[in-house]
Design a protein that fits this description.
InterPro entries: GATase_2_dom, GFAT, GFAT_N, GlmS/AgaS_SIS, GlmS/FrlB_SIS, Ntn_hydrolases_N, SIS_dom, SIS_dom_sf
GO molecular function: glutamine-fructose-6-phosphate transaminase (isomerizing) activity
Subunit structure: Homodimer.
Helix content: 25-40%
Catalytic activity: D-fructose 6-phosphate + L-glutamine = D-glucosamine 6-phosphate + L-glutamate
Distance between the termini: 11 Å
Bound molecules: 2-deoxy-2-amino glucitol-6-phosphate
Number of helices: 18
Protein name: Glutamine--fructose-6-phosphate aminotransferase [isomerizing]
């Protein structure tokens, strides 16, 4: 989704702004722009396409100045063209960038047009610029004008405003779309994601819902939703500056696939003992809050939803608590019944997914015993809004297609399952055995990454395919779902996942030599059943690609290509079997020549509904 960067400094800020936008490219966008105050001029450059187009344009016609704002736009209102790219202006003075959606932009536009304002774009954002200009006529400061404007806006937004007549400050407002202030020495910054500002500062202050802030080179003045002056705590980030670099890899996604052993090791550090889980890992009071839990409701979107689906098997089988999993955009709009002693869990890499946040807001009014978030971004909205939180420590994930966040999320979920299992008196030996398995997991994942050349060769088979079917049973069914999601996201091949037992209830009709069928087959109680499903495919001329346990002793042959993995205990097998499916989708995408890190039409963090 859209990205925001802004700066108030003594030095020229254009390079800082453009580098910030580059670091936000992963979020997905279709145009980019900057507006900078140079003396008494407000200069604006906007381009459709990549940030590199914008930076080429700036190289040709340099823009100078110490106060500026920049934006990458992901179109919601109005086509992706230069006219609709941000920043938007009102006259010669006000420039605005904005993330999110202004829901009442229609009536506001009409009113402003009646006041004589002429609109230059089809966006909802432009109403903000004109409204601020209008409010300035009866206000003493830009801050006051933005406060008055905020009260008239409906929807979710993060916005930054500069005024040509006063380059000493920018004013920002947060309502439903994240904004973080970057604190420098004699200069200050704003961004929608701290990653954009890491080259200039490690010191951050997260704005809260409803905050409006006036930022100068030396000061940050914040007023909250009730217009009361407040302070927000500044925190030093431990995310490193080079988190946005690809290292030796061609794509962030491949880098992130390879980072999984380290990410899981980091995530486990200090959180497990020889035989169990340190429950305080989930936050102060976790022991008490989790002790009486009898039911779990998980809500998430996309890949995070798939990890919740795996956890459903774990919660019921290992901890003996009932568990439901639901897509956030469904949960938020339906009437649901909350059982007694129920825990509401949100799963999210970003912590800013609009539907998941809205579901949490709703859940807080529904009588859950507690809310818990498993999330990768410290300080994100979900983390701040939940009673308990498990910080994933997967490191920054930039590829739009989630990889390491999924497996680390599963690790966090398993720790939660074991914590609840312990409270419910589950045999300690069972818990200790899974903890041992978790400790061995990074090594096993490292080993599975050595399958890369085999999978790269296998991907050739998919080059001319338009569809693919993924099959799994039990807790591997959601892994088939995740495999299908990855393939469609980055290679644009239509892929579907089925619980293998469902095959003969419909999808079997699709099987022919043109439909590759990918099967996830660890050695477990369901193996025999799964083998029968595979035979159903083979008998109809389908081509099987089977990811199987070495001990399962499948034989490759006509209609069956075999990729063998080392044996792993069933509980953690879903995590391991994810890796070859990630590699497969990556190499198919490479063959298809798609944009692996920024697939078309998708954004990393979906902050609008
Ligand atoms: C994953 O590959 C996706 N791009 C997407 O489904 C993602 O998982 C979803 O948007 C949820 O994001 P979150 O985990 O940041 O909430």
């Amino acid at each position: 989704m859209c990205g925001i960067v802004g700066a108030v400094a003594q030095r020229d800020v254009v390079e800082i702004l453009v580098e910030g936008l580059r670091r936000l490219e992963y979020r997905g966008y279709d145009s980019a722009g900057v507006a900078i105050i140079d003396g008494d001029q407000l200069n604006r450059v906007r381009r459709v396409g990549k940030v590199s187009e914008l930076s080429n344009a700036i190289a040709e016609t340099p823009v100078l100045g110490g106060t500026g704002i920049a934006h990458t736009r992901w179109a919601t209102h109005g086509e992706p063209n230069e006219k609709n790219a941000h920043p938007h202006v009102s006259g010669e003075n006000i420039a605005v960038v904005h993330n999110g959606i202004i829901e009442n932009h229609g009536p506001l536009r009409k009113r402003l047009q009646e006041e004589g304002y002429v609109f230059a774009s089809d966006t909802d954002t432009e109403v903000i610029a004109h409204l601020i200009e209008l409010e300035l006529k009866t206000s003493d400061s830009l801050l006051e004008a933005v406060q008055k404007t905020r009260k008239q806006l409906e929807g979710a937004y993060g916005t930054v405003v500069i005024d040509r007549r006063d380059p000493s400050r920018m004013v920002v407002a947060r309502s439903g779309s994240p904004l973080v202030v970057g604190l420098g020495i004699g200069e200050n910054f704003i961004a929608s994601d701290q990653l954009a500002l890491l080259p200039v500062t490690q010191n951050f202050m997260y704005l809260e819902e409803g905050d409006v802030a006036e930022i100068t080179r030396q000061t940050v003045r914040i007023v909250d939703i009730n217009d009361k002056e407040v302070t927000r705590e500044a925190k030093v980030s431990d995310v490193t500056h080079d988190a946005g670099d690809k290292g030796p890899f061609k794509h962030f996604m491949m880098k992130e696939i390879h980072e999984q052993p380290e990410a899981i090791t980091n995530s486990l550090e200090g959180r497990i003992t020889e035989t169990g889980v340190v429950t305080e890992t989930f936050g102060a009071g976790a022991n008490e809050l989790l002790s009486g839990i009898e039911h779990v409701q998980i809500v998430a979107c996309g890949t995070s939803y798939n990890s919740g689906m795996v956890a459903r098997y774990w919660f019921e089988e290992i901890a003996g608590v009932t568990c439901q999993v639901e897509i956030a955009s469904e949960y938020r709009y339906r009437t649901s019944v909350v059982p007694k002693n129920a825990l509401f869990i949100t799963l999210s890499q970003s912590g800013e997914t609009a539907d998941t946040l809205a579901a949490l807001t709703k859940a807080k009014t529904q009588g859950y015993a507690s809310t818990l978030s498993i999330c990768n971004v410290p300080g994100s909205s979900l983390v701040r809004e939940s009673d308990l939180a498990f910080m994933m420590r997967a490191g920054v994930e930039i590829g739009v297609a989630s990889s390491k966040a999924f497996t680390v999320q599963l690790v966090g979920l398993m720790l939660l399952v074991l914590s609840i299992a312990k409270h419910r008196g589950v045999d300690e030996a069972i818990i200790a055995n899974i903890v041992k398995g978790l400790r061995e997991l990074p090594g096993q994942i490292q080993q599975s990454l050595s399958l890369e050349p085999v999978i790269e060769a296998l991907a050739e088979d998919f080059a001319d395919k338009h569809h693919a079917l993924f099959l799994g049973r039990g807790s591997q069914y959601p892994i088939a779902m995740e495999g299908a999601l990855k393939l469609k996201e980055i290679s644009y091949i239509h892929a579907e996942a089925y619980a293998a037992g469902e095959l003969k209830h419909g999808p079997l009709a699709l099987i022919d030599s043109d439909m590759p069928v990918i099967v996830v087959a660890p050695n477990n109680d369901l193996l025999e059943k799964l083998s029968s499903n595979m035979e159903e495919v083979r008998a109809r001329g389908g081509q099987l690609y089977v990811f199987a346990d070495k001990n399962a002793h499948f034989e490759a042959g006509e209609g069956l290509k075999l990729i063998e993995l080392d044996h792993i205990d069933d509980a953690l097998a879903p995590i391991l079997y994810t890796i070859p499916l990630q590699l497969l989708s990556y190499y198919v995408a490479i063959i298809k020549g798609t944009d692996v890190d920024q697939p078309r039409n998708l954004a990393k963090s979906v902050t609008v509904e």
